[in-house]
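Curious: can you check?
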Amino acid sequence: MNFMDDSWFPENQQKLCICAAPYGPEWLPSDFPEDIPVSIKDQVQKAVDCYNAGATVLHVHVREEDGKGSKRLSKFNELLAGLREAVPDMILQVGGSISFAPENEGDAAKWLSDDTRHMLAELLPKPDQVTIAINTNQMNVCEKMTAADVAGTSLGEPKMYEAYREMTIPAGPAWMEEHLRRLQAKRIQTEFQLGDVAQLETVERMMRRGIYRGPLKLTYVMIGGGFDGANPYTLMNFIRHVPDGAILTLESSMRHVLPINMMAIAMGLHVRCGIEDNIWTQDHTSKMSTVAQIEQLVRISREFGREIATGKEARKIYKVDEFYDGVDETLAKVGFAPNRKPGQRGFTLHA
């Protein structure tokens, strides 16, 4: 991304899109009963509350009636139907892991089979986006957490902690290509969840080969444990590699979330918050609801002079339902240099 002198002025920046992640599949309801909805009715109401607070993108997981993360597509369909009716302008982004929560205490926190994950393309009503991980990788979501972060929660139990600490992401080339093919056939867009520049380069290669033909929507996941950490040097290096036509959201964990999001707001990027990422106030004295986190970012963004996108504005910024005809159009729209033509020498650029 290129930053010119006027890129820092709020009147030249996109309005802020806030992604809310209020369902927190790694937590049990007993960890934060005031803010973890269990029934479908309460899960829908949580989305309404997030939308009214200023969030326009909803990262969707779903719980069973016993409070455990659901792995049933029928349960996702039930929640999506309720969400479409209650928050029709909100961008619905289904978490591609489907609930990586362990079945029982001490079980591994595993993602579901490749075939089951492909079935996210069959959800009805269809979501606007499904997140996708790139390249098989470690996903130790606990690595950056402190003892105080998990104290008194289910993640403070050794068996649960170990289950999440050992989690990996299965995302090999054949699976990625088939998943993108199925999602595009259903006109469901992809939110690429990336942990480093190497994963971004894999996405670029897939675009250059025509495997993905749509807007480049990225979440840079700075959680450590196989992903980059909350380091400003790696952050800026990643941003430097992102083309200007991309839509970039920053994600971190626990008390890194607020300062990282403040940087995103200042730079004209977009933000994500919610109990899936953090449950604590910045002084670590009490737990903080997803709605309170959204309201905090709204206040800060307005202090910067940057407006908050409405649902309809966010859908335009995110280019919802937009796809491209071929490789050349995709690269031009996203901002990557064009592919080299036979016999062409030197660097390539769009005319």
